[in-house]
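protein under study:
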Amino acid sequence: MRATQILSRFPAHLEAGRPGKLLGTVVQAGALQLDVLAAALAAVRRSHRLGDADELTDLWRLAALHGMTLAEFEVLIGRFRRAAELQKALDTAADDDGREAAAQDLVALWAPLAAEGGVDVLPLFADPAAPADAARAVARLSAQAAKALRRGRLADAVRRRVAEAASIHLEGNGTVGAMLRGAAAALDLQLGEIVHSADRYWHAARVNDTLRLAHGVPAAGGEVDETLEPAEELIGIEENPLWRDSTDNTPRAHAELFTLTRRGFERALMQVRITGELDHTIGPMLVNRDEGHGVGFDGTVPAGSELVFNEDGRVLLDGADVTSRAYAWQGASFADAIAPAATDAVFQGDTPAAATPGGARPANFAVTVPLGAPAATALDRAAGFPSAGESLPMPGIGVGITRLAFFVQQAHFASLELPAPRGVTPRTGAALFDGSVFATATPPGTTAARVALSWQEHRAFAARLLIPPRFRAWRADDAEGVLTLQAVARAVERFRPLGVALAVEYIEDRWTLGGGTLTSGEGDDPIEALRAGTRLWAEAPV
């Protein structure tokens, strides 16, 4: 006892420790207060240390030293709150089906590997003495959930969050690693190795839940608790996510030359939308003059109808596939000598291709897709349509200024000699340098069609943070998990690069037309798994 230790320090001849002496009584009374003060002092010291603080209040105050507010812990607190609600629902379930459903919802908050794939979870908590007793399994699961929801578990989770935030700040904010570490900490996930895509737009890592649920298993000395192994999940970031940029649906005349100015990271494939104008839109063709690459349609686009050349080379007229009546060509296209450009095709002669000036392309004959009728190309008068419907190579749009041209079939001379009419070779196949047998440009003000161009663009100063979809279930009043996304965004705000717009989204494993990616099926690449989206929708998305 403390009083005995104090009395032992007095000189021996005073016999301070002898029972019945008044000195001993006084010292014992004072020692009690010293014990209280020492315990209080130790508690104060612990409260100032992140690793030792016992009370949540002290942890909140330590977090505040780093500028962290309760809003940044909303996902963690909401998880414990939701688990308590589901535990209560489990305890009050009336039948076996209801018990299993409630157990599924509760256990999903910890995402154990043994519960993946929609298997029944109550057998994991069954009493070995009564494995078929669902009520007993419910009681055992509820007891394990109560252990996992103890105040000490919450305090430990808060402690980890504060320590991880401080560590990230020490190493530096604004990086992919900092963002993924911050997001994993906000969701109480343990981050694995970060993997980067070849183009460095995608970054992914495997994660496991740091909060664990246990179940009882038989042992030599009786039953012991064994932690359920967490399932492996993914978290990722897409830098500069794709979005569709486009021009207006602009009136264009036959043989109109125009330019398009674009900012961006790299060349992108074009989508071409042509809307019919009166009866003028016959055989429309769009050409990228810088690439010497054009696409056209052998047919008429009725007034108000829309002809679409998609990036994948398929062509649709009012939604119906008409690729079999479309074509593409690549080769020499000559610009106006009045406005020459460095990317114009030139006569190469014997000059090596590497020696051509600037970005000029050596001139060559146009090559078409499809080849058309036997011994004919798609540009020849003998070409046969419809073809087999081969997908077309599409022209692109570069960074900066791209020179374009639009044409329709107009005023071509032909022959009605028997035994069969003979069409004139189109301008693109005639290899002439004047307009001797062709109509001149359409008079100003005459619209041949309306043309809109669009392309997939990498959005500058933007990123998407992708988190596991199970976090949708964190709140009973938020079926789509929107509030959880907002909470995660607030938690990772401190790590976000300045000037970069960050969107937090759930990983979507359902197939989306135009957005789903078919994986190779080989290896175990987290980037492919993050982007795949191969599961079918239960119902059509709104």
